[in-house]
């Protein structure tokens, strides 16, 4: 942390010449002294008797199959907080992208709900350090998002119908030290994982950086316990075998013994750096298999790499005779990391049908 960019409680009292700004539908550019000046917007009708300065533009409507620029900021500086909300129906049919320093390919490209640990299009609260989701669907991002020349955030609406988006982007304009890396996030899905294969959380990362987090939306397509799989980190030239290998799925997310507490029941939890915060059970009528939401933030223990990185997880359960069973589950994940630019291009996101929660 350094003064002006990342404050934290340890240096919160230090003075700084950094400039604080905020972008929202009430101030699309974040320009100083230009907030609350809208004369048209989604709140114009309820504010018709009050006029200018009375919540005339609290949100935006994004037409179907179009992309809206949420923020376009000239640097240097850092985005420090993003808040937004929209209807859960749009959480897999909208995509958030972030671009640093006029790059053409995004450094962040993730379905909106998954970026905020809500991949199942059903609201689930998250009480963690970098990501917070509060009732009823208030999504907050506290990842530090530095840039030197420019930061651009867009939201693409893949659906045919419009979506209404409320948002604010709080940022600081300040110098960025040379050793500060850029934030990246990428989404992947295996639906289903092929038999005896693994789900790849991320691969093809090239350059120097550090891995800082994993979110997984996991649907179990079989009976019995499903979380024996190991999570593996292949660092700096690792081929057949990784440098870091976990001991089980619930272990990686900070739990133990199948999350079974009390006996016969899963126990959800959401803590500053790890959680299994969402459990969706079949209802006996329309719901299919059990679904889980899990996150693990490597904030206190970032995984450093110098040249390259690949991260995978096994889908592994039990079969008769005390034997492991390779599973064929529906797994979607988001990898979060910082690295020096340039980054390798991401694999193209699939279309609506392959993004859809089904």
Features:
358 residues; mainly beta; Jelly Rolls; 2 domains; 11-stranded mixed β-sheet; 8-stranded antiparallel β-sheet; 3 helices; 42% strand
Given the helix and strand composition, which structural class is it?
mainly beta
Any idea how many domains?
2
Strand percentage: 35-45%
Assign a percent range to the helix content.
Answer: under 10%
Distance between the termini: 42 Å
| Counted beta strands | 25
**What is the general shape?**
globular
Query: What is the string of SSEs from the N terminus onward?
Result: EEEEEEHEEEEEEEEEEEHEEEEEEEEH
Gross CATH architecture of the largest domain: Sandwich
Describe the overall structure.
The chain starts with 18 loop residues before the first strand and ends with a helix. It has two domains: 1-180, Protein of unknown function DUF2961 (Jelly Rolls, Sandwich); 181-343, Jelly Rolls (Sandwich), CATH 2.60.120.1390. The chain contains three helices and 25 strands. The longest helix has 4 residues, at 112-115. Helix content is 3%, strand content 42%. It has helices spanning 112-115, 249-252, 352-355; strands at residues 19-23, 60-62, 66-74, 77-85, 94-100, 108-111, 126-127, 131-134, 138-141, 145-147, 150-157, 163-173, 182-190, 198-206, 209-219, 231-235, 244-245, 269-270, 274-280, 291-297, 303-305, 308-314, 316-319, 323-326, 330-339. The model has no long low-confidence stretch (mean pLDDT 96). It holds the Pfam family DUF2961. This is DUF2961 domain-containing protein.
